[in-house]
Amino acid sequence: MHAILSLGATHYDLTIPSNSRYKAMAISHRGKALKHLSLALEDIDNCSATSLDGVLATCYALVFQAYYMNDGVMDFAVMTSEQVMQMVEPWLPKTAHPNQDDVNLCIRDIEQLRPFIQDESALSFFQSLINTYFALQHSVHAAFICLSGVYGIWNSMENQNFMNLISSTNIVCRALFLHYFAIDTLMRPFLLHVRGRKHPSISFGGIVMGQWADAAYCGLPASIQNLVKHEVELVRREKAKISLI
Predict the structure, then answer these.
(1) What does the pLDDT look like over 50-74, one tens digit per residue?
(2) Would you say 236 and 210 are in contact if contact means Cβ atoms under 8 Å apart?
(3) Phi and psi (nearest 5°) for 13?
(4) Neighbours of 19 (CB within 10 A)
(5) In the predicted structure, residue 225 carries a pLDDT above the cut 90
(6) Is 119 helix (H, G, I), strand (E, B) or coil?
(7) What is the DSSP string of 53-117?
(8) Contact at 8 Å (CB) between 157 and 207?
(9) Closest by alpha carbon to 27, among 214, 230, 166?
(10) Dist CA 105 CA 90 (whole Å)
(11) 113-141 pLDDT, tens digit each
């Protein structure tokens, strides 16, 4: 129900943009829907057929809503490290990422953001991202393990700290999220290889990720944009490739 209410509020926010109360309602109901979805996923093995239908409907509603949000909330934060690894561990290659040039450029760029970090939450986020890049130099399997630590960091944050992290006014964290999108893009070919290049959820997810990256990048001052230009181009190239599939 919260997912439907959140989707409806987003619709009204888009059609009646002068009425800001709908945006607040959308975020409020979205948060409640994500919380209940997280609880359902933790007990997914014991769900009835009816409950599974509800989980699927909730996911569809939230995905469609995220597509129309300018800054999609990081819904992956509802997942724990254990849930992530259960889904991907069996097929993760234990070899270095084949595109080391992009990995090395991303490491160079994220290091340039280090001096701008001023709080512990952003520092933890930064450290998980750079550790994932370093892992990609040796093993994609290890990189997924490092990246799952990001979800753990998000889950352990107080609500206000998390809201500050994803705030549109938090310039440094917006830049860090662009690195998160870049890492997702670097990982995506392996997911496509296993699940099939025309798997709809993977293709749709890549398009949405590209939309979020463009929105985050446009909200940055020019001085910071120059530090994450490579990461944005990386995500845009993947979005363009998906559009041709």
Answers:
(1) 666 666 666 656 655 555 554 444 4
(2) yes
(3) -65, -35
(4) 10
(5) yes
(6) coil
(7) HHHHHHHHHHHHHHHH-SS---GGGGS-HHHHHHHHGGG---S--S-HHHHHHHHHHHHTTGGG-
(8) no
(9) 166
(10) 29
(11) 999 998 888 999 999 999 999 999 999 88
d(CA 37, CA 210): 24
**Residue 30: closest CA among 79, 70, 63:** 63
Is there a contact between 117 and 123 (Cβ–Cβ < 8 Å)?
yes
Which pTM was predicted?
Answer: 0.65
Cβ atoms < 10 Å from Cβ of 138: 13
Crossing angle of helices 120-136 and 171-195, in 10° steps, is 30
Euclidean distance between CA atoms 197 and 175, whole angstroms:
29
Q: What is the distance between the alpha carbons of residues 6 and 72, in angstroms, rounded to a whole number?
A: 13
